[in-house]
Amino acid sequence: MTSEFDSEDALREAVEILSQGGVVACPTETLVGLLADATSPAAVRRVAQIKGRAEGVPIAVLLPERAASRWFVASLGELGESLANAHWPGPLTLVAPAKRGVAPGLALSGKVGMRVPSASLCATLTKRFGKPLTATSANLSGEPSVANTAELSAAIRSGVDMVLEGVSPGGPPSTVVDVTGPAPVVLRPGAISLK
Predict the structure, then answer these.
(1) What is the DSSP string of 71-135?
(2) Of 6, 125, 148, 153, which is the most buried if we count CB atoms within 10 A?
(3) Which of 17, 1, 10 is nearest to 166 (CA)?
(4) pLDDT surpasses 50 at 110
(5) pLDDT tens by residue, 63-80
(6) Whole-angstrom Cα distance, residue 26 to residue 149?
(7) Which CATH superfamily is domain 1-111+127-138+156-162 in?
């Protein structure tokens, strides 16, 4: 595992690692996350293994741009499009009906959660990579999430292929909203107010 500060060389190395199915710990606009190629079932499984995550607990997805949602859903629907217009890029995860073939670690009950990150190191990395990445906090399941890579556990550091060192703003994680029905259902309150 390598450990690098935010630099062009570090970003290039991170993109190369991601393209080979690796996992990168990186600050997001809320907390430090574990990022891997969300279009690769093997990479998604590896993230779940690093976290010690139980099967059936889905991992959300970071999109490099809104149009990349097509990897996972046919449509966000009218409600989802409206919320995306108002809050993307930003810490709002929209849960929509998943296409067939989405990696099992991403979908639960035929639904997948996605967001377009706002300005942050992970947003830059997601755009450089050009494909969706996993979006889950960089901690072992059941342990507290961290906002500073200096606070990553030894288990997480030894499990990932690279750490892009830095500090996230911290605070609550993304707000998670299910848009599969006629009205939005808040699955997790978070950084965006329910109002």
Answers:
(1) GT-S--HHHHHHHHHHH-SSSEEEEEEPPTT--TTTEETTEEEEE---SSHHHHHHHHH-S-EEE
(2) 125
(3) 10
(4) yes
(5) 999 999 999 999 999 999
(6) 7
(7) DHBP synthase (3.90.870.10)
What the block records as the tokens of 174 is 């993304």
What is the pLDDT of the chain when averaged over all its residues?
92
The domain ranges of the chain are: 1-111+127-138+156-162
Q: Which residues of 142-161 are buried (b: 16+ CB within 10 A; e: fewer)?
A: eeebbbebeebeeebeebbb
Stretch (H or E) spanning 22 = none
Comparing CA positions, the residue from 91, 74, 105, 78 lying closest to residue 31 is 91
CB-based contact 112:132 (threshold 8 Å): no
- Six token digits for residue 61: 């997805």
Instruction: Give the pLDDT score at 3.
Output: 45
Distance CA 184, CA 176 (A): 10
Report residue 47 as tokens: 């993230």
CA dist list (Å): 33 to 55, 60, 77, 97, 156: 19, 11, 28, 24, 11
